[in-house]
Amino acid sequence: MPNSRKEIPQWTWYNGQFLFQFDEQLKKNPDMKISDFFSDFLLSQGLENLNIYHTKNQGTIILLLYGLLVIPKEIWERDDTNFLFTTKNKFNVILSPNNLDTLNFLRLLRNSIAHANFSIDTSTAELTFWNINRNNKTFEVKISYGDLGEFISEIGKYYLNEVKNS
Asked: Which pTM does this prediction carry?
């Protein structure tokens, strides 16, 4: 199982460089084509012949999850939530407490991310999240890259439309 979790710092670095350089380029030459900027960026990072960098990568995924689930902790520490969680069925639940409601599912997922209890399998394009309590695994779910993207979109829209404006 190829676990690309160890590459997250590298992807995060490249993503940061990409965004900062893009911001600078917009100030210097706002008419430059994005494809030209991307080519210049790859060259500046020594990636032009490697065909490995794309902006949708492990660093982006984890950064989004961290920013939307871990940092706004108070959202997920409430007694209830009006988050619809239409993407819950996208998660393949391997192990969980009985009768796990939406709020507790999100708390467990948040805890998995906060404690870096996850793996990324590039061969199956899946992420696995888990929690351990006293050396026993108490929660484990899997989700595909594409389905996780839908979940991230749902969480982001909830935060921007419901939480931020309340």
From this structure: 0.84
Q: Are 21 and 65 in contact (CB under 8 A)?
A: no
Q: Give CA 104 to chain center in angstroms.
A: 19
User: How many whole angstroms separate alpha carbon 159 and alpha carbon 166?
Assistant: 10
pLDDT tens readout for residues 89-116: 999 999 998 888 888 899 999 999 999 9
Please list the helix, strand and coil fractions of the chain in percent, rounded to the nearest 5, in that order.
55, 15, 30
Distance CA 114, CA 141 (A): 15
- Strand-pairing partners, residue 11, are none
Q: Tell me the residue type at 121.
A: D
What six digits make up the tokens of 152? Answer: 């991230």
For tokens 């409430």, name the residue: 78
125: left (phi over 0), alpha (psi -120 to 50) or beta: left
CA nearest neighbour of 140 among 86, 98, 94: 94
